[in-house]
Amino acid sequence: MRRVVLVGRGELGEWRDAARALAAAGIVPDDIDWREKSAEADLSFQRDAMPPAPAASRKPMTVPPAFIELAETVLCHSDPARFALLYRLLWRLQLDRQLLEVTSDEDVVRTRLMAKNVHRDAHKMTAFVRFKEVGAVSAGRRKFIAWFEPDHHIIRRTAPFFQRRFTDMDWLIATPKGSAAWDGERLTFSDEPCEKLNLTDVTDELWRTYYASIFNPARVKLKAMQAEMPKKYWKNLPEADLIPGLIASAESKVREMAAREATRSLPFHDRLQQAARNLPTEPEAPAGTLDALRAEAAVCTRCPLHAKATQTVFGEGPRDAAVMFVGEQPGDQEDIAGRPFVGPAGRLFDQVMAEAGIDRSMVYVTNSVKHFKYEPRGKRRIHQKPTIGEVKHCRWWLDLELALVEPKLIVAMGATALAALTDVKGRLQDVRGKAMAIEGGRTLFVTVHPSYLLRIPDERLKAEEMARFRQDMLEIQRLMTSAG
Fold first, then answer.
1. Contact 322, 280 (CB under 8 A)
2. Strand order in the sheet with 187-190
3. pLDDT tens digits along 30-47
4. In whole angstroms, what is the distance from residue 149 CA to residue 128 CA?
5. Confidence class of residue 56 from pLDDT cuts 50, 70 and 90?
6. Which helix (H) or strand (E) holds 413?
């Protein structure tokens, strides 16, 4: 049994030199006793001064690049078994070049778990190092010291992160496993273990203020929080002394937040309250005009959709427009702007109309439903299809728009618009592209909503549907000409 003692501070070169010599001599993994110097009680053990003589018949061992990258990481692990594990993988890779891709292999699993632990430890170091200012070194430069307690030998692999981030100051990061220092010109390392320094500075209070301000009592999950910020790091973080109190008061703070939310007006309610208080607004529009109808719809509460919407999005266009386009409902951007068809679907709508020779300023554009229906997901508001009941409630406004504008041609874009305008049941595709006579001596033409085109994932199908939509617009332009 050949004993090999390494310093073991995460240096690839140290292990690689020993492994090359042993492999060249044909020494199998089971005949090597790998040791770590730092773990030896008797430091008289040294790596063999003379490497074993290479066997003349043996070819040099080769490994895939992925093994080198993996070994660089695993050698930073604190488990003394890492040397033997890597050498065994080195030996086995000569027989199976794809070994590292075998996710069920015990050695591969153990090696990748070690690498994962090292990456996690390095990530924690970048997140939880807190520098303390200890004075000025020279004009324009300040000196800082930080203390960290890593699980593995990660100082050398993680220190360059701090060099890039804090290049304009001198600093020292001390740990029980060595230290790293930057003086503005050189990054240096020491393997000598350091003793903890109990330092404080004015930034400690800033850290506490910052942490208290971002702490969300409604999202407290103790297991997840302790997984991300394990308790072992708390003693070295100035903000950590706030955590027990913040957790203890989380439940009562959530109740307070719920009580405040219950009394807070939703966006649309603010407008209703303003109208109720008769605050100064725009001059009242003459009765029987689109402006008067728009002002009346601005405070509509006929269905629950008004409660969460920013505002009513009424139709727009000339009072005497010969053509009225009817969509489904406003989207996110329309809800904010207060105008129909100004989002992605609206821009596509404008583009295809222009290609067909239709001037948007000459047509009336509106929606079956006047309020944005959505489901909040984080910071996004995801469109939700209105129900038949919501469409029927909003039919009141659509009927009034039709009565005032009196268009000769109505274009229903999508199934919701078709349902709002007629009693036609069945598939939209069965009536798409057809001109139908409806009550009042008007003509109804049915096509798809432009948002449908934006959602088609298959590029070939999207191109076909776009071409068909353009053809529908050309037919609408022809009908407009004949109606005029």
1. no
2. 132-138, 141-147, 170-175, 178-182, 187-190
3. 999 999 885 443 433 344
4. 10
5. low
6. strand 409-413
